[in-house]
Request: fold
Amino acid sequence: MKASRGEELKTFTPMSKRPRGFTRIKSKDKRTWFHVLQVDPKDGYGWFDEMVSRDYGDVYKEKKLLEVDIPEYGYRIVRRSSYDKWEDIERAYER
Reply:
């Protein structure tokens, strides 16, 4: 008796031992996630960073205050991560 097509494939193509799909590399270093308020003054130079905080609420309040004061600018909040410590990240964003 002839084997079905599925059985033929199993006999001729053995399954490989490696996992399928994208395998994520697990890092031992923990990332620091933070939020950045960006402003676009619509002058052709693009977005620049205005404020950085680990608390989304602080950044959101600042965005709402700026939208009331200067409504013609564009505002957005982006989320970033870094392997650096929070003190180093804050120091990098100081003006």
Remarks:
- The longest strand covers residues 32-40.
- The chain has a mean pLDDT of 83.
